[in-house]
Amino acid sequence: MQTDFFTDRIIQLMRDVFARETLNPERRTRIYARVTSNPCVKGMELWATPATPFDEPSVELPVAEGDQLWLFPDIDVPSPPIGSTMSPLLQGYLAPCIQQAQSTTTLSEERSNLIIEESLLD
Amino acid sequence: MNFTCNVDILKSALELLEVNEPGAHLSITAGAAQLHLRCYSDDGNFRIDHAIPARVDPPGKATIPLDTLSRVSSHAVGEALRFSHDEWHGCLDIEGDKHRHAVRTHAEKWQNPVLEELTDAPGYEVQAQQFGRALKSVLFASVQLSDSDEAKNRPFLTGALFHRQDGEERIVTTDGRRMAMATLPSTERPVDTETPVPMRAMPYAACMKMIDLIESLKSSVCSFRFTENAVGFEADGVSLSCLLPKGDFPDFRQVIEKASGTSLGINVNREELLWALTAIRLGDDDPYNRTEFRVSGEQLTVENSTRWGNSKACIPIQYEGTDTAAAFDARFIEEALLQTDAAEVMFWMRPEPIDPMRLELAQNFQYVVMPMK
User: CA B16 → CA A57, B52, B211, B240, distances in Å?
Assistant: First the structure.
């Protein structure tokens, strides 16, 4: 699942959701942090493209290791599947979204809204 | 068990036995005019042994927490400490000139029987000071224990590989992104090519302790014993035994081969390069550390582009090859440059930006670092 397509889908999903919904910056930052803490996801693009300027998160996280080339790629520990590494808050919704995104080329608005609903519960 | 020993000798011994392991135990075996002290970790996979002279009558054995005896002895100077232990009492009584203590003893903890197998393994000697300096210089490139995720995922990269081939002895470390390799200077003594050495790293904590022992004891020679799963190290009567991390060390020879292309080497002043890498850092908390190295004409340009802006510095070099550029994590270069006091270092960059950079930090000291995309 660790593909560019996969990463692009998550980034697109976040953009769509944040563009539509009103979330305070702190909550938005926490969602960013949770997604980017997943080793499957390259987080850098998220920071570079906030939905609106005032949504720039106040805390930045290190670049995902995907940018660093490895001397011994064959011994690199494979990242666990998203279902087991994503925070419980998001895993129930993002994983199905990605699965759906992989089978269709457009994201479901219903799925996007589910992320927001879940984050608001936190 | 009763014994008496000089507190200064005891303190020196405890310093040698000291390990950065929470909950370490100290086993004291008194007999034949000496104390055999054994410090071992709570999981039983790491231990250090040392013996000191003492007046013993009758012999016996007791186990206490390591740090308690260090505390008791730390405030005493020059005096003789008298110890007595009665199993029924469950305490080791310690009496000095003006102080008395009763330290609770406990049953001896489990120790890994694999470490016992080292006794029968053949010994292998190396020049201690050269080995200690080499190990100290390369250990920075190992997976650090402070990075708990990395240490858990890649335990076989926490520490250093001791490697022998064709009469050459090398110490190699890597965290997967960069690799440091020190070759021990050849000596006149015959090199042992018979004793098998596993292709597995010696644990980081053991490496640190080896360096500490070599520096403290000023040893001229130290020796190793290897089994398939354990390493034993001895210097001036202090011996260390521990389990090797699970998993084989990667084949570092391929890396050296790959990094040793036909490109021309570039000499650069070490302090100028260090200065340049520091000067172009616009923020201390830059999480990217991505620095582009460009070799063009007679200068090396290092450039950072971060959220704070762009910054670059140029260093004059002697180079007549093709222009080359690649990006690297600047921390990896800085850390390597700090491990040598050489005035100049030589580096090789190959035309492809996905190829590793090789640095010759000093004679017999190679470093390879992978670029960033």
Answer: 49, 12, 11, 10
